[in-house]
Design goal:
The protein is 39% helix and 21% strand. By secondary structure, it is α+β, with helices and mostly antiparallel strands. The model has no long low-confidence stretch (mean pLDDT 93). Bound molecules: (3R)-3-hydroxy-3-methyl-5-(phosphonooxy)pentanoic acid. (3R)-3-hydroxy-3-methyl-5-(phosphonooxy)pentanoic acid (PMV) binds at residues 17, 20-22, 36, 121, 123-124, 155-157, 210, 304-305. Its EC number is 4.1.1.33.
Length: 350
């Protein structure tokens, strides 16, 4: 019957870049000035859950996030929906019996299990989940890499949340973005010991959006030119090797250097942008102190366009790394979960 509701649900986890995407060469298509590489967090950690439905009885396309209606008239969301509908039309053209879903309005319902727009890559998980939920609803014969081309147009970093594990986003050379895609460097089970601890230094909305910050950086930082041309290409290769070799020391060195280089570029803009705050810098010093105490690199910090720290470490060192942070900030919320409870407190630097 023509009031039937078609539905599909999916999860997409947050990804945190270890080689940062920063700078667009095309703002409409979200084409980056440099390639980037990230680790997709576990679905048990930070993630978006999205259900997409369509029906001929729906009158408008709608999106709600954590129960509040969202504006979907923006060019980014519209680009994703347009591309997905076009692919569905291609399916319908080949299978005349297939229901005409592309002509129906969409209802999209998303839930984040973490604060939105607080520099916790909410847009990455959000657009990845939206694109996959609609692609599943439409039964598109699209691979994660195909979908990454669409999610990228929602939010650049979203293209890396369609795959688990270790994911690279190749900047591509074409002007139409057809080769600006994400691919898997290694699946999560290649190096399953990798853990990420997220320290929320502030859950407030960031003051300079990533789009505005990138624009300002491209326009006014000479350090950024050097980063995009010289620094990142070499680091991408070195990072892929570190991951293939499961070499945590190399992974940690590159991660921390790239975060610092990215924040240095922001400081080099006119006017300067400060994403890190005093709490962020305290987290950097704590990582340094832990690594110094154990006389090797067992943890690595990284910061996106906001003050929150993400600390990578291997499972074996949970007590030394997460335990030390818990001892320091154990009074704050966030340790209630299964993993938080498993982290012992009282780890003291030797
Ligand atoms: O995807 P956007 O436009 O929110 O930009 C993300 C930029 C960083 O998080 C700072 C870096 C990255 O590669 O994820």
């Amino acid at each position: 019957n023509n009031r039937e509701v078609y539905r599909a649900s999916t999860y997409a986890p947050v990804n945190i870049a270890v080689i940062k995407y920063w700078g667009k060469r095309n703002t409409t298509l979200n084409l980056p000035t440099n390639s980037s590489l990230s680790v997709t967090l576990s679905q048990d950690d930070l993630r978006t859950h999205t259900t997409a439905s369509c029906s001929s009885s729906f009158t408008d396309d709608t999106l709600s996030l954590n129960g509040s209606p969202q504006d979907i008239s923006g060019a980014r969301t519209q680009a994703c929906l347009r591309e997905l509908r076009q692919l569905r039309k291609d399916v319908e053209a080949q299978e005349p019996q297939a229901p005409k879903l592309a002509d129906m309005k969409l209802q999209i319902v998303s839930e984040n299990n973490f604060p939105t727009a607080a520099g916790l890559a909410s847009s990455a998980a959000g657009f990845a989940a939206l694109v996959r939920a609609v692609a599943d609803l439409y039964h598109l014969p699209a691979s994660p890499t195909d979908l990454s081309r669409i999610a990228r147009q929602g939010s650049g970093s979203a293209c890396r949340s369609l795959m688990g594990g270790y994911v690279a986003w190749e900047k591509g050379k074409q002007d139409d973005g057809s080769d600006s895609l994400a691919y898997e460097v290694a699946p999560a089970n290649h190096w399953p010991e990798m853990k990420a601890l997220v320290l929320v230094a502030s859950a407030e909305k960031k003051d300079v959006s990533s789009t505005a910050g990138m624009q300002q950086t491209v326009a006014s930082s000479t350090l950024f030119e050097h980063r995009a041309k010289e620094v990142v290409p070499k680091r991408m290769k070195a990072m892929e090797k570190a991951i293939h070799d499961r070499d945590f020391a190399a992974f940690a060195t590159l991660t921390m250097k790239d975060s610092n280089n990215f924040h240095a570029c922001n400081l080099d803009t006119d006017p300067p942008i400060f994403y890190m705050n005093d709490v962020s810098r305290a987290a950097v010093r704590m990582c340094e102190a832990i690594n110094f105490s154990y006389d090797r690199l067992i943890c690595a910090y990284t910061f996106d366009a906001g003050p929150n720290a993400v600390i990578y470490y291997l499972d074996d060192h949970e007590n030394e790394v997460a335990g030390t942070f818990k001892e320091l900030v154990g009074g704050v919320k966030g340790w209630e979960g299964k993993r938080g409870a498993a982290v012992k407190d009282g780890a003291k630097l030797p």
